[in-house]
Amino acid sequence: MLIMVTFAFIASFFEPKNKIIVTLIFNFIVYSVLFTFYYLLQKEKLNVVGWGLSFFFWTTVAFVTLFFEGLKGQNAVVFCVVIMFVGSIFGGRPAVFFAILTTVWCLLLVYLELTNSLPASIGPGYSPINALSSFSLTFILVAVLLYAMLTSISASEERYRILFESNKDALTTIEPEKNDYFTSANKSALELFGVQSEEDFIQFGPQDFSPKYQPDGQLSSEKAKMMNALALKNGSHNFEFVHVKVNGESFHSHILLTSISIYGVKNLQATIRDVSKIKEVEKIIEKNTDVLKLQNRQLVDFCNIVSHNLRGPLVNLSMLVNFLETSKNENEKALFIEKLKPVISNLNETFDELVESIQIMNDSEILSEKINFEETLKKSMELLNGEIINSSAIIESDFTGAPNLHFPSKYLNSIVQNLLSNALKYSSPERSPKIIFQTKKENGSVILTVKDNGLGIDLKRHSNNLFKIRKTFHEHPKAKGFGLYMTKAQMEAMGGRIWVESEENIGSTFYIEFINQH
Amino acid sequence: MNQLKNILLVDDDDVYVFLTKIIIEETELVDRISVFGNGKSAIEFLEKNANDLSQLPEIILLDLSMPILDGWGFLEEYILLKPKLGKKITIYIISSSISPHDLKRAKEISEVSDFIIKPISKMKFVEMIKSI
Asked: Number of structural domains, chain B?
């Protein structure tokens, strides 16, 4: 190579018209550019080199064809090929741009030659030595650059290939224009899905490694398309997806899609992480959190009960005792002693209720059995027979939707009796009570509804306190505020729910959901 | 010391009302004590006598846990009613509750002058009247 450079340099001294300066400047520019590119290649500024090289070749063509008549026709074609070749290595755009420019230039030259209007040469003119010098120069230039380029590219390609291959994250690329098929996968990706080789892998797309539906109910294929579109639109996109391995085993994955361009073609690079274990832990945490939340709420309720319902009578007791101690009047003393009785009975009652409700909270081992709604309602109606007759209530029931229940019979008896007794107690004085019991099945649960036409409840005001102990909402001598509290405690102990819809003076509908009734 | 014309005692606990009445009467600082068993009847009384200065109380002693309309519900209604009332009324919450949550909630209501935990003593009551 060095010999050729020297040869070209010496040859330039034998220019027929002795335009040594011109040749020297020309050679100087060529070599400076050459070494600049070589330096840039080492720095891996491929894009700059791509544009620069293509531009340089083109100006060379233009220069040579204009000033050195002898290199006119055939060299233009050679350069054109070189530009396209070099440009394509660095990624399409420079090549296309300069190829078009070169073609236009060549056509212009052909036109000028045909019309014989080519301007007279301003350069040194044609000579065999000049031609040889220019030719060898071109040859060296191309050879050196190609060598530098190829070694540089293969080195960097190797580095990225290793990065891709040895990454412990499963990496793949997807080409949206090819029906969203995979176009490559690293070793971890093959292992994750249980596929033997990359050749096998690229026969599939992500939708082939998915169940038909995702947990959110979406079709896997549709969700995948949507996620791809989002990544293409936003540059990248994070989401969770359930995948299926070749052996049928499914797993939760976290996926990062990044939109990339390979030779001008839009691709998506997917990083797939198996998060099944995290998901499992998450589920346990979620379940425990729910239990904790419930227990915490029960604790707060319990504190309130102690503070409101136990402390009240205790304060009364201590005040009464103080008065008794200081009173000198026998009649007054007798009055205070008389007042002690209701306080103590109130305290006893609250205490018993509290014990009962705490037993429910701790009664997690209580056994469920098959019970019949019809029979349970009959039992409650017998117990409340007096109230039913007195209020001339009409009680209807339709248990065809779910005639039986798997539940502790003690609880169901208490729940049905409480709801029936409430509906009778808070009936409207304007109309005779009509109470409708109904059951239906829904998503593995049985839902019992109890609808009445009674007084109704102002939910805006009382919804927070409705199921709390010792909270009453109507002026009724028998209102104690214990029934709904117990019902709720029993339902929560079994993982169920109770809620209500109500309108004042129209009536209330209580809903009770019993879970796990398959 | 000021003599108060009227005090409203809003509490559903009969025994407590009985004892508190004795304490207040013993101070001989109050002419009349009106008792209401829940927030709703107390509000109805205030609404009815909004312009009757002789009926409106100087002080309301308010319990929290009551049926039909509890102390909080009473306060909500009272805030709406307040601009129509012809007299400045001081409200004390007197509750058996020792819950910090209740205490905090009461502090957030500017209409409430103080939160007193039951039982109320004669001394505390005299202090209360003095501060008006």
From this structure: 1
